[in-house]
Design a protein that fits this description.
It contains 2 helices and no strands. By secondary structure, it is mostly helical.
């Protein structure tokens, strides 16, 4: 865990230097959108599976 804490500031500085701020914010929102979409699909599949198990 300490190794990650050492590299995070270096990673953020590298990202700030190499990406424009708008591009960085856009990438963060795009990653969040895909993560939310995957989580929603998994929750719907879980609810459907549970519904089918209790219906029997």
């Amino acid at each position: 865990m300490k190794n990650i804490r050492l590299y995070l500031p270096i990673l953020f500085v590298l990202m700030a230097v190499t990406m424009s701020s708008c591009e960085l914010i856009g990438d963060i929102f795009q990653a969040g959108m895909w993560t939310a979409l995957i989580i929603i699909v998994l929750i719907v599949a879980l609810v459907g599976w549970l519904f089918s198990r209790f219906r029997r």
